[in-house]
Task: inverse folding
């Protein structure tokens, strides 16, 4: 093997190392004598294909890139199973683990990455596996043959591919993912949610927002315990939480290393005779974890080494998930931000979600789920930074459509251009021709079209299109539709449409609603998110999972934020009645937590001002200990029940208004509503509790109770309407519960009762609550059922440590100058 | 040598679509935000309008809505968005090996 050609030694027999050699050979097959050292005891194979290998779709033979004959034919010496342990730059030698020493003229480091292992207790137990090479796959297959359960930590690309493979191999798989959605680096919330439901329907258990506390077992893995106390038995744990450039050797050798081995545009390190390529390098501040950039690097490396340097300029990457039947693609930047415009297409029937992000007339990112056919086209537009303004409106429909040029920016013209047999309504199979015929037959409004030919009568996602057809067919005669405006700019559906769909289609979580109803934004806005959160919790008592991101600060903190960022705390005083003990506890808390003011509120209770967010859990714990619960002075919820002294003391009192008020408050507290809700009970028509400006008021009279609804003392003063008169306290309570439930179920989010009653009309409310006894009873029992889940004191939960992070600083900086003397 | 970056702690202590606070003795409190896709940003915890605590706002996309009067502030530039005018200092922050690192000089600006 002697020759006088310069000696090129490659450390790393992986994807980048061997591809670099191929690129060099392609340009000049004769320039170097080449040796490759590989830590793995095998020839060069396609690491990407380890996933199909694990899934049983491929064999090792199938995934070999370069077999022994390649090394022979090109006179490459392969030293496999013998990692390089040292480099001597002065002598220009490498030393392998076996003790073998070789001299180099040029050295190429291509050591790839190491999987990152989170150092939780138990991470060293046998049975904890990473997913990086053939040996790892071997270990997983062995475990799968023994059967049992597997836990995969990490819901990224690698973790999901591992989970898929193991589940095809017959293991029961649980994926534990720290972030709230899967593959959050590649997918937005909407696509991540679709992916999660698809995987769950294939039998995997996916736990998002789950943090591993420890891996336990005697001498081997027996399971994983989460920080929230959940316990998942398993015989293997696959850690797929990320990778780190393998820079150990380079560091020891004294090369410049940042996050990776630093290289210039020709892949040369800080030592002119040492090059580096692949996942182990850092170029221009970037490190890469996918193969496409490595191919670019290898080309520039070879060009620089044996031909004309062309200079590597960095790469844009795209990702696809290699799981059969799940088409997921993402490329570029989808974090949004200023100047970015989202174009979203959802097709709930086909399970498709597409989103492209356009900035300054250029495509900057794309996320595709369910239909990735156009992935490459988008990626191409993105890489070439092409101006997409001319195809902007057609972009989301894909290449075939956009280059067909059939689309016009004007929606009416677009409708005019549609063929008569083009389908408009997918649910009911109605064509444009049929809609036109229906309009021709006299249907001049959306409702008439819905009644006539069923278009837009089911899921409603074609409503916009039907309206455009109406406008096209009728010209100026078309008055436009829907005095009921859409919920917000993210959707064309009204509040009522959305609430109906939530029930009819059994939608249970926000991303599901957005997908089913074709939301035009990826994750809604600050106006629809809280509304959807409320509609879901109202529709599915006990089943709904709270989405704290969709709550305004006061509801998240269970206290009212003040202008200086401190909080006010208001304990409940049932019906405005208190005791010396409660007052003492409030006074003690005011002292202990430095309340800067204690004020009697307009709602008959005490408000402690100036409490710091860090102190909230402990002040609540103290007040709880004295028997008090949150007054919900924040929140779209029951606020106060104001009472007067009533028959117990007052010489005019006709009934026990105080007692009834307390009972009403105890029945209704904790309930979330479309807006805040206030109740008052006055003992006689003198009305000292101001019951006539409350959402629900009671005026006691000799013969019973007058029930009043829809009052508001706020911005627009509105006196109540008389709902009816009842004769017993129990009836007053029952009617109150039924009225609240009707309001909860039918009002739009952020409607107080006053505007709601004005919109639906007093007669309607009377019909539902007074005339329809069966309906009233049903409403009442739905309310009480919901209350059985909602009457949980939020303070008690927080005081016990729930969501502690909301109240603590993450850390604190004490500069030397301030600390002093250290 | 004084390090350029300060290690604040593990990134998993930041709730997604939420924020945590970092008081600086003698300086301005910092709010560290995490967006839906896991990006991390830091701003001085003071709304340019009337000094509302931005850390308590609703994080959406790459903006935070101030809890006091609903100004929208860009997490990237610290600028108020829409009609509102004002800007809050941006603090450099990055994630390395699962740790949050914050730019020392900017974090200590104003501390003497
Ligand atoms: C504390 C209190 C004033 C007081 O010192 O008395 C108060 C304080 C606030 N009210 Fe009020 N309202 C208070 C009784 C009232 C009343 C009187 C009543 O309930 O009998 C009304 C008129 C009755 C009504 O609601 O119809 C009232 C009508 C409003 C309105 C206008 C509502 C409307 O529909 O027009 C708002 C603004 C809003 O909710 O959007 C409001 C909003 C607020 C907010 C939440 C403003 C804010 O967003 O920060 C204040 C919170 C201060 C805090 O941090 O505690 N407050 N507010 C009263 C608390 C009562 C309680 O114990 O819970
Ligand atoms: C399961 C799986 C699926 C993947 N799927 C995709 C995908 O779909 N798309 C995509 O683009 N990318 C995918 N990747 C990533 C892709 O495989 C890597 O980006 C690529 O392999 C990196 O090439 P590399 O040469 O830098 O590192 P590697 O291929 O890891 O090669 C480095 C080699 O160096 C060896 N080595 C390390 N230290 C020494 C030493 N001191 N002496 C001798 N040898 C040493 C290692 O043993 C290893 O064989 C996947 C990765 C995995 C593990
Ligand atoms: S009236 Fe209500 S909202 Fe207005 S300042 Fe007083 S407490 Fe605040
Ligand atoms: S203080 Fe932030 S909007 Fe007013």
Result:
């Amino acid at each position: 093997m002697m020759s006088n050609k310069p000696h090129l030694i490659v450390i790393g027999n992986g994807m980048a190392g061997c591809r670099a050699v191929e690129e060099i050979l392609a340009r000049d097959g004769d320039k170097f004598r080449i040796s490759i050292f590989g830590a793995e005891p095998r020839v060069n194979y396609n690491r990407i294909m380890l996933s199909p290998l694990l899934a049983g779709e491929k064999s090792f033979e199938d995934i070999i890139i370069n077999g022994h004959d390649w090394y022979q034919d090109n006179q490459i010496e392969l030293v496999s199973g013998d990692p390089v342990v040292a480099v001597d730059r002065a002598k220009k030698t490498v030393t392998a683990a076996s003790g073998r020493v070789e001299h180099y003229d040029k050295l190429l480091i291509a050591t790839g990455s190491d999987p990152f292992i989170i150092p939780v207790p138990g991470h060293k137990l046998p049975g904890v596996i990473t997913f990086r090479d053939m040996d790892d796959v071997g270990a997983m297959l062995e475990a799968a043959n023994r059967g049992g359960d597997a836990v995969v930590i990490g819901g990224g690309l690698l973790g999901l591919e591992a989970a898929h493979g193991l589940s095809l191999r017959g293991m029961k798989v649980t994926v534990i993912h720290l972030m709230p959605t899967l593959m959050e680096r590649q997918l937005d919330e909407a696509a991540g949610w679709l992916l999660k439901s698809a995987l769950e329907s294939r039998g995997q258990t996916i736990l998002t927002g789950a943090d591993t506390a420890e891996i336990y077992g005697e001498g081997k893995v027996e399971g994983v315990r989460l920080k929230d106390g959940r316990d998942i038995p398993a015989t293997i744990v696959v850690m797929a939480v990320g990778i780190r450039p393998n820079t150990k050797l380079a560091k020891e050798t004294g090369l410049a290393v940042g996050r990776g081995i630093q290289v210039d545009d020709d892949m040369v390190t800080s030592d002119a005779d040492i090059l580096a390529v692949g996942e182990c390098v850092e170029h221009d501040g970037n490190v890469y974890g996918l193969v496409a950039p490595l191919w670019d690097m290898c080309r520039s490396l070879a060009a620089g080494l044996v031909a004309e340097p062309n200079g590597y300029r960095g790469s844009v990457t795209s990702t696809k998930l290699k799981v059969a039947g799940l088409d997921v693609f993402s490329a570029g930047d989808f974090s949004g931000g200023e100047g970015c415009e989202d174009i979203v297409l959802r097709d709930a029937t086909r399970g498709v979600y597409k989103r492209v992000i356009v900035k300054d007339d250029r495509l900057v990112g794309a996320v595709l789920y369910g239909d990735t056919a156009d992935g490459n086209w988008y990626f191409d537009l993105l890489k070439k930074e092409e101006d997409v303004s001319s195809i902007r409106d057609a972009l989301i429909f894909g290449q075939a459509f956009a280059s067909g040029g059939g689309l016009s920016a004007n929606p009416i013209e677009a409708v005019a251009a549609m063929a008569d047999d083009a389908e408009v309504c997918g649910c009911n199979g109605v064509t444009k021709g049929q809609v036109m015929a229906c309009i021709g037959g006299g249907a001049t409004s959306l409702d008439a079209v819905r009644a006539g030919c069923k278009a837009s009568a089911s899921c409603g996602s074609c409503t916009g299109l039907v309206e455009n057809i109406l406008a096209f067919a009728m010209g100026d005669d078309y008055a436009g539709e829907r005095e009921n405006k859409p919920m917000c700019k993210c959707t064309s559906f009204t509040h009522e449409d959305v609430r109906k769909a939530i029930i009819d289609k059994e939608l249970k979580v926000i991303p599901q609603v957005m997908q089913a109803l074709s939301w035009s934004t990826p994750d809604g806005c600050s106006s629809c998110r809280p509304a959807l959160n409320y509609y879901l919790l109202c529709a599915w008592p006990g089943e709904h999972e709270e989405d704290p991101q969709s709550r305004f600060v006061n509801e998240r903190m269970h206290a009212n934020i003040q202008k200086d960022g401190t909080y006010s705390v208001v304990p409940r005083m049932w019906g405005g009645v208190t005791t010396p003990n409660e007052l003492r506890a409030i006074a003690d808390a005011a002292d202990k937590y430095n309340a800067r003011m204690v004020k009697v509120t307009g709602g008959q209770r005490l408000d402690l001002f100036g409490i710091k967010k860090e102190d909230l859990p402990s002040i609540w714990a103290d007040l709880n200990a004295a028997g008090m619960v949150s007054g919900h002075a924040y929140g779209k919820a029951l606020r106060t029940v104001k009472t007067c002294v009533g028959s117990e003391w007052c010489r005019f009192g006709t009934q026990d208004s105080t007692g009834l008020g307390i009972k009403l408050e105890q029945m209704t507290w904790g309930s979330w509503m479309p807006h805040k809700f206030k109740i008052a009970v006055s003992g006689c028509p003198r009305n000292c509790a101001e019951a006539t400006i409350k959402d629900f008021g009671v005026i006691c009279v000799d013969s019973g109770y007058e029930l009043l609804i829809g009052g508001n003392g706020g911005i627009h003063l509105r006196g109540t309407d008389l709902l009816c008169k009842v004769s017993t306290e129990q009836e007053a309570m029952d009617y109150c519960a039924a009225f609240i439930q009707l309001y909860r179920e039918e009002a739009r989010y952020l409607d107080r009762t006053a505007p709601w009653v004005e919109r639906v009309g007093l007669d309607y409310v009377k019909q539902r609550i007074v005339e329809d006894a069966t309906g009233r009873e049903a409403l009442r029992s739905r309310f009480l059922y919901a209350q059985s889940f909602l009457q949980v004191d939020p303070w008690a939960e927080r005081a016990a440590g729930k969501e502690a992070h909301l109240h603590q600083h993450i850390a604190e900086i004490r500069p030397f100058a301030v600390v002093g003397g250290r | 040598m004084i390090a350029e970056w300060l290690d604040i702690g593990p990134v998993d202590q930041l709730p997604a679509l939420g924020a945590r606070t970092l008081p600086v003795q003698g300086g301005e409190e910092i709010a560290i935000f995490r967006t839906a896709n896991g990006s991390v940003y830091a701003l001085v915890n003071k709304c340019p309008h009337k000094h509302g605590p931005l850390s308590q706002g609703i994080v959406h996309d790459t903006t935070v809505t101030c809890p006091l009067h609903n100004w929208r502030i860009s997490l990237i530039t610290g600028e108020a968005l829409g009609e509102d005018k004002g800007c809050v200092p941006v603090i450099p922050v990055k994630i390395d090996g699962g740790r949050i690192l914050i730019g020392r000089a900017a974090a200590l600006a104003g501390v003497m």
Summary: Residues A 560, 562, 568, 570, 599, 601-603, 605, 607, 633, 639-640, 642, 676, 678, 693, 712-715, 752 surround siroheme (ligand 1) (CB under 6 Å). The helical segments of chain B are 104-107.
